[in-house]
Design goal:
The protein is built from 12 helices and 7 strands. With 258 residues, it is an alpha/beta fold.
């Protein structure tokens, strides 16, 4: 069976305008990861899971020749509108070979649930000693949110494939995957990042849990939202009604061996 056939079907649908308003904190908090990659003028860089291209722009501003890759046509259109070079690509089946000095990724790998395919494709895409650096959800990321969604899904008969459809590895697990995939790990760590939500928990759920909630028709969908939010309120909402997402990121830098 080919790698493409083994690729899991995407479960998340993105809207560029929604992401620009409610998901901007994702790129705003990722500048240290760009420094970990340290792109320089003249290098060729792949931004894997580029989204609407905000960080791709920053890589280009440092003088690199950067290609943004994503599976969402709507987000790619938003990135292309910024003047960026983009390509629709499934991260589980990268079509590149010995083309890039570095691969950068932010907040995308946890949506790619066959990491061994992703890592193999990244290694093929890199030139010898090419760099792979990024950040994504690590073990324990949004644990409260995922638990609340699972509990409410069980009550409403939700699709199990759409309940917390993420890959959140531990440091040991992802280090092992990288090393088995032909990389030398230079740095890897979990970074706790409680994130105050200007958009509230409803905004977070509407953007990052879209696939789960869209399976329900109204008025049941409104009931599901309400039940998830009320389960989360004691853990994630303070006395001033400020919501905080329980984010934990896995940040890493690795180098292709051979």
């Amino acid at each position: 069976m080919s790698a493409v056939q083994m690729t899991p079907k995407p479960v998340q649908r993105w809207q560029a305008d929604d992401y620009a308003v409610k998901g901007r904190f994702v790129s705003d908090l990722a500048r240290p990861v760009l420094d970990l990659l340290a792109p320089v003028k003249g290098e060729r860089i792949l931004d894997l899971g580029c989204g609407d291209g905000v960080l791709t722009q920053e890589i280009a501003a440092r003088g690199a020749d950067v290609l943004g890759a994503d599976l969402s046509e709507e987000l790619l259109a938003a990135a292309a509108a910024k003047g960026l070079k983009v390509q629709k690509v499934d991260g589980h089946a990268l079509p590149f070979e010995d083309e890039f000095d570095g691969v950068f990724t932010n907040a995308a790998l946890h949506w790619m649930r066959r990491p061994e395919l992703v890592i193999a494709g990244v290694r093929r895409a890199l030139r010898p000693r090419g760099r792979f650096a990024g950040e994504f959800g690590g073990h324990g990321n949004v644990a409260a949110i995922a638990t609340a969604i699972r509990a409410v899904s069980a009550l409403h008969g939700g699709d199990p494939d759409k309940v917390a459809p993420w890959f959140f590895p531990s440091v040991a697990e992802y280090r092992r995957l990288l090393e088995q995939g032909g990389f030398a790990v230079k740095a890897i760590m979990l970074v706790p990042r409680p994130t105050e939500l200007d958009i509230g928990i409803r905004g977070w759920l509407e953007t990052f849990g879209r696939s789960f909630f869209e399976q329900f028709e109204e008025p049941e969908r409104a009931e599901v939202f309400s039940e998830v939010i009320e389960l989360l309120r004691p853990a994630l909402c303070d006395a001033d009604s400020v919501w905080t997402a329980d984010h934990i990121r896995l940040r890493f830098a690795a180098e292709r061996v051979g």
